[in-house]
């Protein structure tokens, strides 16, 4: 059984691989007939999808070992999405009307393998909250950095989708002092007034090491790093004995106008790592498959109790999605960026 479908549906495709950051001409909004699900597939009408910086790494990237496929000209863009099943073959474990999450955003209708869908319930009070990338912050702070009562925690890129949740999570896990970094005075004010950050270091307002020394005069115990680059270097200079560093993003490479798709190289002082006993680890969700369900449960409890906020902006219409990506790169938005269809 299926529901009536439109004769055409829209999706955003990559029109060309940019040199540097993508511009509007690198994307095309294309109309195409809605696909028909075959065995083991369902058709999902997308309601929301996440615009995430990792997409920049996938566009023409040459890195090996990426968890998602590289995008080439003509490919439809991808990303986390939430939608409603509108067509399913007989015998499918998913039924018409089920709400699911999957990774085929950037299109109004998605043909998804059943194995690639996650059925959603009411654990979270708003379906959009399922697009929160907070699982990475939660996993890194509980599995790698292991925040302890009394810790001083630094979150770089604190006004982004991950960072805006990371500071709140660190506090809920027992951190005594939470410091963030951002590039906007207005965002710095919101981090303190809305999300409970104790202090913020501001990119472009002076040397980061000096700002960090003032914000954390006794040093930091934990780093949740979304940026790498000079932020990672400054954090290492402020590390206390036995500090735990968890890397979850590389915005310094992804959002650079000189990006080449080859990563985010940075020079750090290995001697300081050694004498300070600093652990430096990258977080990969695939290594911790139990985290997603654990995070969703705790996130739902914290949202309902008001102990945590999910900062995000909703952009209406798939035609505005490419500009939403540009605006996210430019630091226009606070928190996650979600396109609402």
Automatic annotation (TrEMBL):
Residues 20-339 form the Enoyl reductase (ER) domain. It holds the Pfam family ADH_zinc_N. It comes from the Bacteria. InterPro entries: ADH-like_C, ADH_N_2, ER, GroES-like_sf, NAD(P)-bd_dom_sf, Zn-ADH-like_protein. This is NADP-dependent oxidoreductase.
